[in-house]
Amino acid sequence: LFYFLQRYIFINILKRVKILSRTQIELLKLKMLKLSDQYDNFYMLDSCNLNSPLNEGKYELLVAVGAKRSYIIDSPLKSLDKLQEFMSKSAWYFGVISYEVKDDIENLESKNREHIKCPSIAFIEPEGILTIGKDGLLNVAGNSALFGDFELNHKIENEELELTGDQIVNSGMTQSEYLSKVAAIHEHILRGNVYELNLCYSRLLEDVSINNPSLLFRDLVKLSPVPFAAYVKRDSQYLISASPERFLKLSDKSIVSQPIKGTSSRSDEEQEDEKLKSDLFNSEKERAENVMI
């Protein structure tokens, strides 16, 4: 019996920890996306095999499924205090924080139209966590049965993304409204009220059906791979993100933010790279954006 238990535990460890090749990692990503259909809570964070000093991180892939506990709140007021209480014990947590939570930090108020009703904060302590390190190390914590088998030698069926309906794009702002706002911004700049201002507005795609949102995420990161891609499913709501920017990273006592504003591409050619660096340093526009940030 002791030998059997030893052997069982050893085999289980082998199932939970292994080194994957890049091909196997990509197959596993597709398999995880197919798995998302089975769960009400699913989080997938993908680095898209992009590695550089600017977007370095510990993981190539993070997947969380199921929920032991959840914290969902609609009002932004005092929501962060309650979130801290929810995250009081040491564990993995996955979630989203809406832009409106800023009202809980500063004396601010937004009057933006809410096209899709979403909570201010939604976090879970997942039942199962799958991680793949930058070195290809696969590890599964929690309930490993939630992820099924890890057979990656067979080809995964390639389902096609299908969009149906009239697919009407509603910008939420007419051309005349847009030009009027631009003129008002110019006036503010001339008066010296501000020296730079971003005009943002939402675009809403209406009257459209998607056969599977996970396929939209799959095709998006294939078309435009980014180091901070995310696919989130919470009940019947989905969040798909392909961002080249890191908003915040907390490491020990350091906070890192890596926006795209005020940055430049790099070159493999040393002379061209130095020119790009010089152009960035001497650009009045880019320096202004860095000061603003």
Short description:
30% of the residues lie in helices and 26% in strands.
Content of β-strand: 25-35%
Q: Please write the string of helix (H) and strand (E) elements.
A: HEHEEEHEEEEEEHEEHEEEEHH
Q: What low-confidence regions span 5 or more consecutive residues with pLDDT below 50?
A: 1-15
Please report the number of helical segments.
7
Rg on CA atoms, Å: 23 Å
Terminal CA distance reads: 63 Å
Task: Describe the structure in your own words.
- There is one protein chain.
- With about 290 residues, the chain is α+β, with helices and mostly antiparallel strands.
- It is about 30% helix and about 25% strand.
- The chain contains 7 helices and 16 strands.
- The chain has helices at about 1-15, 20-35, 80-85, 175-190, 215-225, 270-280, 285-290; strands spanning about 15-20, 40-45, 60-65, 70-75, 95, 120-125, 130-135, 135-140, 165, 170, 205, 210, 230-235, 235-245, 245-250, 255-260.
- The strands form 5 sheets. The protein has a 7-stranded antiparallel β-sheet.
- The radius of gyration is 23 Å and the shape is globular.
